[in-house]
Amino acid sequence: MQIYNFVIIIYQKSDKSKYPMRNAIYVLICLILIIVLPVCSQTVTVSQFPLTEQLPSNSVRCTFQDKEGILWLGTGDGLCRYDAYRVNVFRSSSLNPTLLSNNDITCLAETESGLLLIGTRKGLNVLDKKTNKITVLSDKELSDYEIRSIVIDDEGYVWVGTYKRLVRCSPDFAKVKTYDSSLPVTSVNSVYKDQAGNVWVMFWRKGLYQYNKQQDTFIRMPRLGKHDNPFRIYQDQKHRYWLTSWAEGVYRMYPERDLREMYELVEIDYSNVQEHRILNNVFGIVEDDKYGYFWMINSFGLTVTSFEDNKLKIIDMKDKFNEMNNIFSSIYK
Fold it and tell me: Which of 39, 98, 169, 234 is the most exposed place for a label (fewest CB within 10 A)?
C-alpha cells in the first residue's frame, strides 16, 4: 500500500507583507495541500500543493512554521524549507553523507534564539538558519534513538521525547539530563507545554506525568482508562484541556480537580457517520480560530467536530476529501 502525505492550510486573509505566509494556519496532514478559503463564507475547496514535485519524498511526516513565517516540511527523505516561492531541501546524500543524522524527519521545533530543532528517526539535529549550518548532537541519549516529540519550555530548556525515554537539554545543549528516577523508561507518545507553561509528558501504556519545576521532578497523574495510554494533550481557546488516548476515546481533563475526578470521557455524537469508532484512536488535534471546530487525526483519517451540549458532534466533510486516501500522520496549526 502506497502512503501519500497532505498538508492542510487554512488561510485567514491575504497578506503582501515581508512574510507572505505569516497569517496562514498550517494544519499538517498528509498528501496534498488543502486550502480553506475564504473563511468568511465557510467554503472548503481542495487544491494540490503547487510544488509537490520538488519534495524529496511523497511522505510528509511533520510541518512547522517558524518566527519568520517560513514553512518547514519534514519528509521521509529530508527537510524542506518553503517560503511561498520555492522549496529548498536539506538531506544527507553521497556527496554530503553526514549533513543530517537521518533523512527521515519526525518532528520540528524552534528555540527562542531561532535555532531549528530537527528530530529524525535516529538522532536530533540543530539548524542555524542564519548560516544554514546543521549540527548533529552527539549525546548518546539523543543520537541513538528516534525523536518523537520536542518542546521548549519558558526557561529555554529543550524537552525531547525519544523512543526510549524523556530527555531535557540545557538551552545551549551542553547538558543533557534524564529523569529515570521519577519517570518510566519507555517510549514517549508526546510532550506538551500548556498555556501556563506547564510541561506534560505522555508515555506508551505508562500514563501521564506533569513536571514539578520547584522540585525538578515529575508527578504521576491518575491512570487513564483501562490501558493508561494517553497520546495527546491540547488546550483550546477557552483554556479547556483535551486528552486523547489510544483505543479509549477523547477525554476532558481538569487539572484543578481532585485526582480521582480529573478525567471525563467525552460523549461522541455519531449521527452523521456510520463508523462509531472514529475517535477511539486520536493522535492529533487542533482547534481552528474562527469557528472553534476541532480537527482530529485518527486511525480512520481526518475528522472535524464541534463541541455542543457537552458532546463532540462530527461534522460531515467526507465530500471535501474524496480524493485522499485518509492516511494521515500529524496535524499542526
Answer: 98
pLDDT at 96 > cutoff 50: yes
Over residues 209-233, mean pLDDT: 97
Per-residue pLDDT reduced to its tens digit, 223-255: 999 999 999 999 999 999 999 999 999 999 999
The CA distance from 200 to 202, in Å, is 7
- pLDDT, tens digit (0-9, with 9 covering 90-100), for 279-307: 999 999 999 888 899 999 998 888 999 99
* Short-list 161, 242, 176, CA closest to 206: 161
Sheet holding 44-46, edge to edge: 24-28, 7-11, 33-36, 44-46
Burial (0-12, 13-18, 19+ Cβ within 10 Å), 313: middle
Backbone angles phi, psi at 206, to 5 degrees: -130, 10
Q: Tell which residue, 290, 269, 289, has the closest CA to residue 278.
A: 269
pTM above 0.85, yes or no: yes
Question: Cell for 4?
Answer: 501519500
Long-range contacts of 317-323 (CB under 8 A, 24+ apart): 317/44, 320/34, 320/44, 320/46, 321/34, 321/46, 323/32, 323/46
**Angle, CA 85 vertex, CA 100 and CA 102 arms, to 5°:** 10
Grid cell listed for 65:
512554521
Which set of grid coordinates corresponds to residue 180? 529515570
